[in-house]
Amino acid sequence: MDYLLWLCSLVVPVVLAVEETLMDSRWATTELAWTTFPESGWEEVSGYDDSMSPIRTYQVCNVRQPNQNNWLRTDFIPRKGVLRVYVELKFSVRDCASIPNIPGSCKETFNLFYYESEGDTATETSPLWRESPYVKVDTIAPDESFSLLEAGRINTKVRSFGPLSKAGFYLAFQDLGACMSLISVRVFFKKCSTTIANFAVFPETATGAEATSLVIAPGACVTNAMEVSVPLKLYCNGDGEWMVPVGSCTCVAGFEPSADDTQCLACIPGTFKSKFGEGSCTPCPSHSRTSARGANICPCQSGFYRADSDPPDSSCTSNPQKSVQDQLPLIIGSASAGLVVIVALVVIAVVCLKKQRSGSELEYTEKLQQYISPGVKVYIDPFTYEDPNDAVHEFAKEIDISCVKIEEVIGAAQSATVQLPRDSYQRRAVPQVMTAVEQDYRLPPPMDCPMVLHQLMLECWMKERNLRPKFSHIVSTLDKLLRNAASLKVVTSTYSGDLLRLGGTLPGHNRKSPEISQEIVRQQMSQTLPIRV
């Protein structure tokens, strides 16, 4: 720990402690008029200090009388918010051995006391002239004493006391039988002066309550500097010296440290600094220039360019594609990788979609094969179901159940017979019969059927399965027809001769399908069979 404190103290500038004086007896131009007890004790006299300047002093020399108890008390001293104060005493003491015919009660020391108060309330009798309520600081002894034949030797002693909590205090000196002179008394406190460390300013800070106390002073970055580690603080010890800095600042871009590392100076024109830190400003790269102070980048000259991805310290070139060409392999590689990923996703999606469709068709086929034998078509008789809804749901599996609803049951289907027509096809060849069917065998419109409705019937009947209108389209078309009643007034002419020529009496079964057409023709040629629908 001691090594750490020593190492950290190396980075702090050597700054002497600042001493602020609260009271100095040498400032007095008239009598001090301090309070004494008893009156025969301390005496105020005029004298000279070590520089031979006139001063007011107090002296006492009642060595020939035993049991001396002489007190001297200063005026009230405001403490100004400080916690610990220092007292500097300059005095001289005569050697007891140099005084003839004195009793053994001669002393060469005196005592220092202090008394705290919220105001100047002391009188000649209060506080009492005894050790309590005063607080003793120390017994002061001289380093050197003088004899009658020698000049007075001045001693200097410094003592401190605290912590102080009230508005101010008094100093008191107790003589117990010495022959001495109190030349001057100075009361002061210490503080750490304003300093700059690690590009941070730390304000003037008073010392702590104890001699070993460390007071934290918060710091702030100097102008054009930024924090790089926090918190910013510096420790002030009891002697008024800075100790351990914590945190630091550094110059921002466009500014460099000064020679003494106490401020950040702007880069001069023609130089720049692109990053924050303790680095210095550098000249602008080739084909670039800046005329401003504190520049963090040098703009390219006319006709020269620098890519956005290039660092600020790179030179400007006349070919702006140079940097792009250097990155072209990377761009192509990234694009190729992206294309491969997209193709893979498309292939996976197509395969999954096909599997889903094939699975649905397989499931539908397997269920259908449970009811269909080879060569037999599907027929669902709704009368075999107790609930017609079950028959509809079984028949209309391709339609969502929520879209199917039975509004009304209007009756049952009837059988129909197909008889030989008057114009028999027995004497015609099969191609001729098929041609006739293709030309004349159509779904005839019902009686008084609107043309647009008949056209919708043809689209649902004649077109291929995948091309037929969907259920939603049929509902939409019917809704439009109901809303536009005028379109229903155009009635298609009835031409039922096509079916009558084939002997059909129920047109609802007709479809444009070669297989069904051939079956009907064969039935006409052979015999009449009933058809159920």
UniProtKB/TrEMBL annotation:
Enzyme class: transferase
GO BP terms: axon guidance
Keywords assigned: ATP-binding, Cell membrane, Developmental protein, Glycoprotein, Kinase, Membrane, Neurogenesis, Nucleotide-binding, Phosphoprotein, Receptor, Repeat, Signal, Transferase, Transmembrane, Transmembrane helix, Tyrosine-protein kinase
Catalysed transformations (reactions): L-tyrosyl-[protein] + ATP = O-phospho-L-tyrosyl-[protein] + ADP + H(+)
Annotated ranges, domain Eph LBD: 19-197
Stored SMART domains: EPH_lbd (SM00615), Ephrin_rec_like (SM01411)
Membrane-spanning parts: 328-353
Record-linked Pfam families: EphA2_TM, Ephrin_CRD, Ephrin_lbd, Ephrin_rec_like, PK_Tyr_Ser-Thr
MF terms (GO), sorted A to Z: ATP binding; transmembrane-ephrin receptor activity
Source organism superkingdom: Eukaryota
Main subcellular localisation: membrane
Membrane topology annotation: Single-pass type I membrane protein
Presence of keyword Cell wall biogenesis/degradation: no
Signal peptide feature range: 1-17
EC number: 2.7.10.1
Any one cellular-component term (Gene Ontology): plasma membrane
Subcellular location: Cell membrane
Protein name according to UniProt: receptor protein-tyrosine kinase
Gene (UniProt): EPHB3_0
